[in-house]
Specification:
CATH superfamily: Ribonuclease H-like superfamily/Ribonuclease H
CATH architecture: 2-Layer Sandwich
Helix content: 40-55%
CATH class: Alpha Beta
Strand order of the largest sheet: 3-2-1-4-5
Number of helices: 8
Order of helices and strands: HEEHEHHEEHHHH
Radius of gyration: 17 Å
Number of domains: 1
Distance between the termini: 43 Å
Low-confidence stretches: none
CATH topology: Nucleotidyltransferase, domain 5
Length: 200
């Protein structure tokens, strides 16, 4: 289970406001990518990698994190930005927006994964499987996942034929069959669909 050990290690180096950063939505065929940054003031019981938690548990922790965090920020990179910059760079854009959106500025960032976002303006450390190791990253993963899932529920109301409420834009058979039947919606990522649609 994640804990504060990595955060405490960083604070021993003289940093005071350590934020955890994670994203949701790199893999789907539709919708934006979402990132969150969280500075925790205290441990929150039950935190874990958002993918290992039930939807009900994520929803409960979402409210608790927002209530107890010293600061949090959630940001998106749009489908247009994903198409223009590619998904990796769009993820970095969302992460940087989340860090810069914190009401209490972070002086250090723990980034889930093994790549440092380009243009990041604070010192940082990457943590592979960070959402299972760092409480701050786990909190960020929950905020990003719940926020993006809620957005896709709203998109489902606009485009019910794709059933976004069920798969949240991921490439399930039901989703790809719907794309082949109904075509591409304004929130689909064209670059992710080339193979499916037989484009080069």
């Amino acid at each position: 289970m994640p804990d504060f050990s990595i955060e405490n290690e960083i604070k021993q180096q003289g940093f005071k406001a350590v934020c955890g950063v994670d994203e949701a939505g790199r893999g789907p065929l539709a919708g934006p990518v979402c990132a969150a940054a969280v500075i925790l003031a205290e441990e929150i019981e039950g935190l874990n990698d958002s993918k290992k938690l039930s939807e009900r548990k994520r929803e409960a922790l979402f409210d608790e994190i927002k209530e107890k965090a010293l600061s949090y920020s959630i940001a998106f990179a749009s489908v247009e930005e994903i198409e223009e910059h590619n998904i990796l760079n769009a993820t970095y854009i969302a992460m940087n927006r989340a860090i810069e959106g914190l009401s209490t500025s972070a002086d250090f960032a723990l980034i889930d994964g093994n790549r440092v976002p380009t243009d990041i303006k604070v010192p940082c450390k990457t943590v592979v499987k960070g959402d299972a190791l760092s409480s701050s990253i786990a909190a960020a993963s929950i905020l990003a996942k719940v926020t993006r899932d809620r957005l896709m529920l709203e998109e489902d109301k606009k485009y019910p034929e794709y059933n976004f409420k069920k798969h949240k834009g991921y490439g399930t058979k039901e989703h790809t069959d719907a794309i082949l039947k109904y075509g591409v919606s304004p929130i689909h990522r064209p670059s992710f669909l080339k193979k499916l649609l037989g484009e080069k």
